[in-house]
Known about the structure:
alpha+beta, Glucose Permease (Domain IIA), 3 domains, 8-stranded antiparallel β-sheet, 8 helices, 42% helix
Amino acid sequence: xxxxxxxxxxxxETLMYExxxxxxxxxxxxxxxxxxxxxxxxxxxxxxxAGVLKLDPPxxxxxxRENAAWNSKLELMNRQLDIYEEQLADxxxxxxDIYRSIFGMNEIPTEVLNAGFGGVNRYAxxxxxxxxxxxRDTYERLDVLAKRSYVQSKSFDExxxxxxxxxxxxxxxxxxxxxxxxxxxxxxxxxxxxxxDPVYGGYRTHSGVDxxxxxxxxxxxxxxxxxxxVDFQFFGYGHQVVIDHGFGYKTxxxxxxxxxxxxxxxxxxxxxxxxxxxxxxxxxxxxHYEVLYRGSAVxxxxxxxxxxxxxxxxxxxxxxxxxxxxxxRPQFSVKANNQ
Length: 339
């Protein structure tokens, strides 16, 4: 005998609830029919929604809307980053070509600007988290921009520090003739640029100017600085002194007969550093004088005025001698070094 379950139904005649006996099989059949109907309706809904109307499910549509909104924000951020990068590039250009150039500072090397961004992939975690590369690219651009902004800021700090030393810079730039420009005591025997080589022949680049004058005439430093090197040679420049004036400037004094400074000595403009000679590759007594700016030879005639009077020059030299402390300087001569 099959198991039955009691159910109650209303008798319309007696208006009383009476027990109705429903077989279990019939009840299961009803439940099955209900489930099949629900499944069919659901399938029909998704078929019409996605297949016929080509619409995304509500959750998918919501996620796509949120993703589109974030992409729009990232694109707007990237357009703003484009503006910031252009402004930073302009600042870097002006910094290198104007500010740093004025004070003789080297340009910021590219490897310094890009330091920390090569080699290892610093964004591997983002590559694994997102399939859209826009977020990764934006994050990387922000990182690079922050680094370059920091480097540029430090550069401006260096320029600001040097600008506070502008007075010092004025005294360091080689701005006077290296010998007393008294008329009749010298002549410009060879200018800066291409010339005919008086020893070997042929046209060669002359990296300085030659001031022919009497052997033994004093040579003066043309700007404040530190003696970088003192060399004694039998060929080429002969006996020479190189002074580092800072701010990208150096001067060379060659073919000297005597040298009265040593490496590392601090020099003031107008101090005597030696005497004119004819050591090295020469045809007669003269001073070969060079001005180097950031490692390249430039025309010394652009830095000194040979029209300065001998009295003005002597006044400056005597003033420097009075201000300088009395020190015992070495005197290196040609004869002493040829022995």
